[in-house]
Give the backbone structure.
Amino acid sequence: MRARAHDGETAAVHEVEVEVSSWAISFRLGGEAQLWRMSEVEVESLGDQVRLRRRGQAARLTVAAEDWRAAVAGDAAPVERRHRRRERRLVIGLFIAAAAILLFVFVGVPLASGPLARMTPPALEESLGDTYAAQLSIAFPPCAGQEGQDVLHAFGDRLEDGMDSPFNIMVEAVEAPMVNAFALPGGRVLITGDLIAEVETPDELAAVIAHEAAHVEQRHVMQAVWRSLGLGLILDAVVGGGTGAGQQAVLLAGSVTELRYSRDAEAEADVRGQEILQSLGYSSEGMGPFFRRLAGEEQRGEPAAGVMEFLSTHPDSLRRAEASNLRARPGAPAFSPDDWRKIKAACDDQPRRPSSD
Ligand SMILES: [Zn+2]
């Protein structure tokens, strides 16, 4: 960049060549090398010219405004490129971090949940189950028919003899506006009044209860809890700032009725449930007809109130009905006619919820 230089002491004007870099300008004046840091340079605009001074000195340079802008802009470009590179690196870094979190949640946690569940001390799982049960009993109170509850409770005790599990299987009928059954951590098995109304034979009810008990035995319940806790920990770190808000969100949104098992876990519980019944001499012929009937109702488009709920947590009904039928063995009914009448009446004493009628 050409410039006219005044030394500030004489009236002499020197034509000089000025080098502009990102941090300084340099030129020779009167045989002496000059280096002015950009931070010391004062720029004064004079229309189509620009006057440059070094702070505290009398010497000055005058350059064409156009040349100055070009020199400065030419130098600014690499700075901007560096900024853009840094931004790109940041975006890529964030993308990799997000991918790592997703990988952890959807691959790492599910992979670890099985071993974690097996390592969970039974006492810890039981106390977790107590917490869930207390929470659930507000929404789904126990049915009032005590005789029916006693029959179910005794059946849970008998199932334990056919199981390889440290847990007490405690079966309870609850009021809930859906056809469903679910196992809690630690061994509670809840069956809804609507499910009791839906089953047609003792074999069908025994099959549903044994299936849920098998989820407990195989630690599927605890595995599902670990999965949702893992997700909660991540949510906590990402959105909750470690306040526990993510944990709360997962516990509230995914209460036990929402715990989902994998297809493999469902198939395993089907097989184990039938094995448990067979080892105790009970018929294992109930699951097939029950699934088949629910699936039929679904296909006819007239499912009973809440049946969809059971099918949503127990997918592939028809395929599972066929597999269950192949493995089924005849045996004693799990409930006598008298016990069956008590079970069927267990939830009749309370007025049905408006939404289920
Ligand atoms: Zn299941």
Notes: Residues 203 and 286 are 4 Å apart (CA to CA). Confidence is low (pLDDT under 50) at residues 351-357. The radius of gyration is 38 Å. The chain has twelve helices and eleven strands.
